[in-house]
């Protein structure tokens, strides 16, 4: 199994939206309507918690379901990553708007995404060309996601005292993760030349 720092060889990939028309794809795509609905129910702790947990379950099971049903696809992996980001940002912003979270926390919570945003033109160009290595999340990326989930869950339960010390840690681990992803992209670029 490759480590998070290894650069895997590029493969020609085709993103076909029809590859989402299966159980795993539906589980992944479920996070989009949940993200849209969240700001409207964020003030209701019970509903907000239910939507958040449903999204977390869909994220936890979509990959195993895709592997079990042999329906893994590049578009599924692409959609999974982006819908996670969309959902988490939507939840965090809604929590800011109802005064549960301080706005500056979002800079820490999404430090990884802020830095990764600089890579979007690079990713788009590669996906359009169909030339991209498989997206392999790093252990620090997984840790960032777990810490963010715990912090958001604490805020949903109105236990900000728990989320406060986690916030700078999320920022630090997230920045480290983003730097690792950028380094991986430069290594891929060097190897492809």
Can you walk through the features of this model?
The chain has 193 residues and is an all-alpha fold. The chain has one domain (11-192): Four Helix Bundle (Hemerythrin (Met), subunit A) (Up-down Bundle). It has nine helices and two strands; from the N terminus they run βαααααααβαα. It has helices spanning 23-29, 31-41, 45-68, 74-97, 105-109, 111-116, 120-129, 139-156, 160-192; strands at 11-12, 131-132. It has a two-stranded antiparallel ribbon. The relative contact order is 0.16. Residues 1-10 have low confidence and may be disordered.
Helix content: over 70%
Broad shape = globular
Tell me what the CATH architecture is: Up-down Bundle
Stated plainly, the CATH topology is called Four Helix Bundle (Hemerythrin (Met), subunit A)
From the alpha-carbon coordinates, what is the Rg to the nearest angstrom?
17 Å
Descriptive key words:
193 residues; mainly alpha; Four Helix Bundle (Hemerythrin (Met), subunit A); two-stranded antiparallel ribbon; globular; disordered N terminus
What topology emerges from the helices and strands here?
Layout (H helix, E strand, L loop, with lengths): L10 E2 L10 H7 L1 H11 L3 H24 L5 H24 L7 H5 L1 H6 L3 H10 L1 E2 L6 H18 L3 H33 L1
Antiparallel strand pairs: 1-2
Give a brief description:
The chain has 193 residues and is mainly α. The protein has helices at residues 23-29, 31-41, 45-68, 74-97, 105-109, 111-116, 120-129, 139-156, 160-192, and strands at residues 11-12, 131-132. Helix content is 72%, strand content 2%.
């Amino acid at each position: 199994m490759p480590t998070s720092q290894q650069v895997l060889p590029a493969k020609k990939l085709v993103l076909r939206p029809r590859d989402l028309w299966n159980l795993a794809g539906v589980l992944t795509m479920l996070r989009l309507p949940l993200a849209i609905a969240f700001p409207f129910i964020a003030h209701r702790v019970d509903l907000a918690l239910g939507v958040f947990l449903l999204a977390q379950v869909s994220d936890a099971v979509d990959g195993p379901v895709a592997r079990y049903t042999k329906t893994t696809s590049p578009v599924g992996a692409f959609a999974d990553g982006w819908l996670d980001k969309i959902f988490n940002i939507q939840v965090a912003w809604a929590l800011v708007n109802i005064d549960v979270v301080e706005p500056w926390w979002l800079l820490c919570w999404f430090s990884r995404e802020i830095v990764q945003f600089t890579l979007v033109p690079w990713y788009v160009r590669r996906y359009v060309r169909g030339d991209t290595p498989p997206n392999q999340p790093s252990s620090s990326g997984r840790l960032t996601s777990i810490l963010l989930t715990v912090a958001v869950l604490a805020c949903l339960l109105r236990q900000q005292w728990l989320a406060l010390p986690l916030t700078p840690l999320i920022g630090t681990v997230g920045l480290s993760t983003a730097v690792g992803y950028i380094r991986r992209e430069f290594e891929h670029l060097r190897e492809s030349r």
